[in-house]
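Data availability excerpt. The first of two example chains:
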Amino acid sequence: MFSLDLLFEATLFGILLGCFYAAVSLGLSVAFGLLDVPYVAHPALLVLGSYCTYMLSGLGIDPILCGVLLMPVFFILGMLIYRFYYETFEKRGSDAAVRGLAFFFGLAFIVEVCLILVFGVDQRTVRASYIGSSLELGDYRFPYRMLVAFVIAIGLTWALTIYFSKTFNGRAIKAVGQDEGALRLMGANPVNIKQLAFGIATAVNALAGAMLIIVGPVDPAMDRIYIGRTFCVVVFAGLGSMSGTLVAGLFLGISESIVLMTLGASWAPAVSFGLLLLMLGIRPQGLFGR
């Protein structure tokens, strides 16, 4: 039977799960929320980050440190992806979003197929001292792997919030999707600003991918699981809101955890799509707007 103790336990686990969802959605919040780029390949790059972490961790490097080391590489990769997208699609007219959607879907499939060819379809995991152990507080046990995700999510949200609000480039990134003409008058090149922002969004994926493989095993097709959850978090939060992404991730994590413990695991994946449809119908601008 459902009880208050079970509700409390589901809420605690949902908070940890929600912070993880927020962390893996931050890159999409930047690319889709601030730049209006249909970045549906975001989960595929997330899984790519997990597999790169898997390879580096084989050298004896901690998975989180692997994610940090991969961030500059993914930053450059993101800049190259956006430059190709801009020159091929965005530069050519108003239907860039539709054609760009096909481009990013194609990119996602290419990444998935390449991972299958290199690693096969078997799941991959990493090893670390905090994976498989838990912090015990009374009758409750908190997996260290989820606590690590919790801390990183808070840190990433804080760092991106400070960057976007306190630096010139950060404020330019927030403005580029609203008025490119005014941004040019301020002496900034909108294309370069978007390229920088896309690089940041992809760099965040490297660290988020490391968290993904810490939380559980990964396989090349896992991006299909997270595409709904990440878009739900971003739309629910309000496009481009970093703090809102954290709040929306918490809301999704707690809701999914409660559904998991009351109705069963088969209903949990439907929570994100249900919340997404509900938010689009009631408040399309999201909790925090743009």
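And the second chain:
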Amino acid sequence: MINLKKQKFLIIGAGNMGYAVLNSLIENKISSKNILIIEKKITPKLKKLKSKHNLKIVKNVRLLKYKFVPSISLISVKPNQLNAAVDSSLEKFLSNSLIVSIVAGKKISDLKNIFTLNKGIVRAMTNTPASVNMGTTLVCFDKTIKSDQKKIVRNFLSLLGQINETKNEKVIDDFTAIFGSGPAYIFLFIETLIKIADKSGFKNSKNMVLQTFLGSLLLLLNEKDSPIHLKKSVTSKGGTTEAALKILENKNGLSTLISKAIDKAKKRSRELSKAN
């Protein structure tokens, strides 16, 4: 088992996903001395995290006043910012580092053209629950990655939650649409239930909805049964749940809407890949 506490981590871009990974590193007791962040715009929550854990943040590596040799570098800038973010000084700085990119739409071949001095490139996608060590991550290794490098990457990404691997880079677009965007779909459903509960006059709507979601997930995990069977166990013939499900499961219902939404997200992901 590779000791990640001895590794040095560089995070380039501390937006939503970069921040989520950074927070996960801290939650997993990685020393702030072994973390360096490159970020031009420091958000209030990043500033708070910086002060609390004495993190080092610089706008570019030329401003770094001490020696730092990253063993793992996470690239988490926006796709249209990547080329501008990588200059000759940064490329040289990363020459001995494993590159783990979570930049949407940037293929391994694109990354190899940008990081020409670096041989160890990995493409991955995760989602925001990574910040609480409950992320879902998909990783695709470049063919040149060695087995010991794969172990390091797996150990690193396991800090974020569940890891899945693929040799087919094309499925990353599907992953982005389903799992990368997935938390937003769930939050929307929760938001909708809260609003409906509020209109019904409940004073503790948010907590009641969250408890229903959490309890349902735990029931699903504990029972080790399928969602279909558990759904049936809630549904009585001629009852209220059946009446509601007739609306949600009709041909224009929830399943159809979600499928259409995910297809739209997949299409957009592919468009971004081609544009970049």
